Structures
1.
Amino acid sequence: MENSVIDRAWWKECAVYQIYPRSFFDSNGDGIGDLAGITQKLDYIASLGVGAVWLNPVYDSPNDDMGYDIRNYEAVMQEFGTMADFDALLAGLHARGIRLIMDLVVNHSSDEHAWFVESRKSRDNPYRDFYIWRDGKHGKEPNNWASFFTPSAWKYDEQTDQWYLHLFSEKQPDLNWQNPAVRAEVYAMMNRWFDRGVDGFRMDVINLIAKAKGLPDGTGTPSPEGYVFAPEHFADQPQAHEYLREMRRVCFDGRDCMCVGETPFSSSATGFSYVDPVHRELDMVFSFDLMDIDSGRSGKWEIVPWNLARMKAIIEDWQTALATGWNSLFWSNHDQPRPVSRFGSAESEVPRVRSAKMLGVAMHLLRGTPFVYQGEELGMTNVPFRNISDIRDLESLNFYRLAAARGEAEKAWQAILRKGRDNARVPMQWSAEQNAGFTTGTPWLMVNPNHDRINVDAAEQDPDSVLRFYRALLSLRAESRTLIYGEFALIEREHPQVFAYTRTLEDETMTVLCNMSGKEARLTKAVSGACVLRNMHGEMEERLLAPYEARVIRSHV
Ligand code: TEU
Ligand code: CA
């Protein structure tokens, strides 16, 4: 901190709880979580000790990509309730001192959005340039870009004999941010949500909004279908910064809000360029580096073992690069498998509980704002889906279809079990009752059979549950200026099992020691001081960590 004054902000001091509304709590028995359901669980949310909630999209949507394809930015999805339900939830959160962060999905809209319905009508429609339309090349796509969810990023539209760009599904056409009218509409919409009382936005793939001039072909390795994934031409383009600075002027300046951008492909240097206090285009970004740690060259479905040295390097890199900015801290979200299954051990109960707590310590005491995804606080695990008919996520379904066509269905299925997004999207586990207490109807996505032992009710009863520990962890952080603002330094750098670091502010140091392995680990150096948090009981040897043990030690100079 170089004895400078700490640049305090509410969003640096609180933790954020991420809610996937479709799977949180169903208030009316239709099998789909809803806004009134979240409102019913406000006391639970408050009990976690979080200062903000981020809601995945709740806007009107045909749900091709579960709300990430928005038909109307200013209406609530019917299955989730009404605008009155929304206002009640917002008021209930604010009454408890909890802020509300909305998802903002403006790289693309739904193809059913009124703008696109107009846009596709004719080449001279006033909304034509709201999207990215191009002529084909010799009867084929305008360029060779691959999409995230389908082989090609282009879709041909007969009516006007042109193609439109969609980096995600065909039902998610990319908005044309070059068009000032698009930007003006988006900013006005955001300002209306701010005026309604929301406290900020999580901005979906916000670093993809500007595309390289001329939309040049990608030069990487083509997919089996012959398309090239070309983030060099659609991620982190210079215009993205221009647009975000404009957005700050038009929407954020003068408001007490927080904005966090989701920024796939960004390096730490690029990440810093978004949060650099000089411009502060965004307050935080979500980095993908850790999330890609077990992905092979062809992407997330090519699963490779993760490695601790690489994990430490990624964390140190971001902690260092953003030392004058601010990091977001997360192990999971609605797109990622469950961390305890991925980085801990979900094989049996003792290691599951201990590694879930250890992971919480390792991540959420870094310098940055913790984002806890629903169910993480229970140590919820990946799901034993039986076969592809259990899956609802279009990314997994499309991947499976393409792989099956190549005769690789079984390999694809194994990858979906480990990495598929539905692992995180099954209903929240409230109780051991039928459907995990999530709904009295038929849940839209199966519940994990392990809800008989992993659930909120059971965790409330058990003083050693992951839930009780998460409360202690978040309250320790909330009450420690050192854990919030202190400087980060990696220790035990070369240790093959241990991830450890210090956080230092003035004369106080908090040392975080985590055994990331299922075997005992010997520290190279003893750490003296008072143990203020530990994820297990039993005798404590200064230099020995039990499998998945985590400790936090406070000391003073
Ligand atoms: O995700 C952006 C993104 O990069 C995803 O494609 C991510 O790589 C993928 O989910 C990993 O499996 C955001 C949202 O979080 C996601 O839910 C949406 O599907 C996507 O944007 C399109 O809006
Ligand atoms: Ca419902």
2.
Amino acid sequence: MYDLIIIGSGPAGLSAAVYGKRAGFDVLALEKNPMSGGQVLNTYEVDNYLGLPGINGFDMGMKFHEHANDMGVIFENTEVTQITDAGKYKIVTVLDGSEEKTYETKALILATGASHAALQVPGEDKLRGRGVSYCATCDGAFFREGTVAVVGGGDVAVEDAIFLARFCKKVYLIHRRDSLRAAKSLQDKLFSCENIEVVWDSVVEEICGQDQVEGIRIKHLKETQKTTLQAAQRQTAELLAADGVFIAVGLYPNTEIFREVVSCDEKGYVIAGEECETNVPGIYVAGDARTKKVRQIVTAVADGANAVASAEKYINSLP
Ligand code: NAP
């Protein structure tokens, strides 16, 4: 019986692991991927984490892992298939090869984060991995000197466009509105890149290509003065030639396996306030999987601490 099991090893899970060890608990961290860090690993440069301006996301993930590991957290690389609330303790079922095995714990922290959403247009599934990507830092190098399109207007899309502009000949940022959601500092960087062209008020209708992406068909929702796409390429039912398409249209929470145990909102985020308490005593949620306004590394790290504070109170109250 563990004191605390944490599912997920992104910033929220690793922060919870460190705080859990500081509270004197036996802590088991279950990670699905062979490397800790979560989404951070795929970020080229993190510019807004206090004290570490410009740190590479991979290095940051490694530092977070090292910190938790040095504190004596036990890590296991496995996929969780089920959680069960057995009252005074919780059961976590994981895959052990092709077999299932279970762990018991007094308290459980869900820190499984969120994954990239799909655009859900024709051609996307067929050309996934053949020019369609959801991770610019993972796949960007395949498009050196090429032309790529990034879809979205949030922090991820803008970060991806800036990253790709370092080595691609041309980067189109396709956004469905006439203003970006991304942080102002990122927008300033974006607008200073000469090889990035923002295609405003436009949506992707299809990703085209036989075996590889050859282009995207985009539809302009309205013609605004801001639409800067070069006239030569602006035809009706426009086909924009591109070697790759990076989709960055938001996230969906990795909470499918928890939804019958804890209450979630209509998008699947686990419902909890700043104290990270779900509706089930002894089960807490930290990071991007929680209902919250600001999904940042720093808020995920803060959740890890808050979730452990709540779990500690709960564990100490157990008879
Ligand atoms: P996001 O902030 O939710 O932005 C998603 C973008 O995709 C929005 O611009 C949205 O358009 C657009 N979009 C959504 N569905 C679409 C569709 N079907 N077709 C076309 N466009 C669509 O998501 P994100 O950029 O992935 O970021 C996720 C979270 O992580 C955010 O909270 C973000 O702040 C955080 N984050 C932070 C950092 C950092 O601080 N360094 C880095 C990365 C991510 P609308 O604007 O019209 O809604």
3.
Amino acid sequence: MSLEFLHRQELFKQEAYWRGSWNEGNPDLKIQVQNPASLEVLGAVPALGQKETLEAIDTSKEAFSDWSARPAKERAVLIRNWADKMKKNREDLALLMTLEQGKPLNESRGEIDYASSFLEWFAEEAKRTYGDIIPSHRKDTKIEVLKLPVGVCGILTPWNFPSSMITRKAAAALAAGCTVISKPSELTPFSALALAALAQEAGIPEGVFQVLTGYPEEIANTLIDHPDVKKISFTGSTRVGKLIMERSSKTLKRLSLELGGNAPFLIFDDADLEAAVKGSILSKFRNSGQTCVCANRFLVQKGIYNEFISLFSEAVLQLKTGNGLEKDVNVGPLINEAAVLKMEHHVENAKTTGAKLLLGGKRIEPGKLFFSPTVISDVSEDSLSMREEIFGPIAPIYRFDSVEEAIQIANSTPSGLAAYAYSTDYKKIRLLSERIESGMLGINEGLISSEQVPFGGVKESGFGREGSKYGIHEYLNVKYVCIGGF
Ligand code: SIN
């Protein structure tokens, strides 16, 4: 299956969407996009830079006056239309995603549902950005609190979830009355451009949602430096998040940063082992382990350590690695050569620090970017996989003795995005809920994302929340108004 199987070829856009129209930019400056499974070039997108970003900012600012002034209900209808368009074109969007990102087609379908759920959710939330009336401290004044859209927003999103990371931000921003300039990853721009085509079809006015493809640093820096861009929302690495924060200080931008994780996955002696194995597989191997929230370190208590390893390894052996377009494939390719080299480095490091390689640990067919699902036991606390975000299909397993030790190790990294724990003891569950340092915690559950929940981290995993009733507030300013003369 390839691009010619799209039901609607017009969703495969090789132009960017800015200044209110589709534009191919300079025909001599293009970025090619490849399929990580076959390494075939799928197409090319404009390599835009500072000039086009400045134009997009002007357009976005102009569009903001009208968009922010519309009744919330009117914005809601258009955002909802966008969600409906996504649902209607689910198969095409999923195919595009698998072709450019590599994830299994069923996962892509799931991501399209996930992505459209944010549009649906925030279309509803648009109507609920209530302010307050506060009893005044004086007889002659009235006090109101208004929630107002922050303005033009730049959203910078990664390649691992090419659609949902965009809608999770854009839906909230648009619902609040902001306008959006989206810079997708240069590795997966086609999903973003298809979203823009559907936004246009849904009636989202010109300039309200623009997509710039091209030189990531140049576009991002122009957005960050510009005083008319009032907010940056970024999903990506902690390293880049810190650079964005530093650079944003010049204009004191509002920021949401959803950064790297290093999720501990704790399994206690009293856990339901079957459920724990199922949750482990889901959490670890979704998107070939390329998610910020996926299990990074398995911490398993000594009483069930051997049994867990044996059941988990059995389940890993059932996983089918291959081209995501093929039926029954669970694990697709990694995104690029650098990602595979990183896996090799992690495996080498584990071996040299005394761990045991139980399964996988190497590249496999059917292509250059496939890495076999890997299980490593007896990892030491100082091995790389325990300290760094792996972002690939490697499961390092560490043995612990006591609850205190588990909590201490779980909290021993600078990251604090997601964490998971399996136990049937409600007192332990309560303790973990309070003591694990993370923005999100799955108890007896390995898959915790949805549009209703506040997604985000603590510590060096960033700040700000996406999705849920909290997500829209990232795009609203609180204004206190004191009305005198009564
Ligand atoms: C991410 O990996 O950044 C997002 C994962 C999710 O939303 O579940």
4.
Amino acid sequence: MPFTLPNLPYAFNALEPHIDARTMEIHHGKHHNAYVTNLNNAVAGKPEENLSIEEICKNISKYPAAVRNNGGGHYNHSLFWAVIGPNAGGAPTGSLADAINDAFGNFDEFKTKFAAAAAGRFGSGWAWLIVGADGKLAITSSPNQDNPLMDVAEVQGTPILGLDVWEHAYYLNYQNRRPDYVTAFWNVVNWVEVAKRFDAAK
Ligand code: MN3
């Protein structure tokens, strides 16, 4: 099987009270796991089983819907687990902080705009902070399991921070209160990891 479920690099309860253990357990072990299984089934015996998930996303228009949905699901969740974590939150520093100030005015303005993208994504999808082809930061959102790496994305770039706004990501703890979940998200963002991805994407 070419694609595997990455281990969660912290305990299910490590993000409490911001994201509850039961949500993390189901989200990682059931939802992400299903995307990996369905992606492996969709690429079995085809040339794309030898490609990286990033390469598949970049050429997603060539592949059937099962690869788009489950490949996106695998890429998106793998990024999500990495950019959140315990002992996190606060604010970015260094060149990432400078780039956020350049692009959005200041960190609070950035958070307001990102939260608006997350709240405004109708139905299921993701909010993103991306590095565009021009090297500049931008905020965007995508439906379903699409992402900004995909050649079909409205706004394309390299994602360095993503927020899952599917109901399965927050419903057990927050019910219909997506804005409360988005507010809590800032307490678990691993800015060191986001900065690493920013430096790599530039
Ligand atoms: Mn999810």
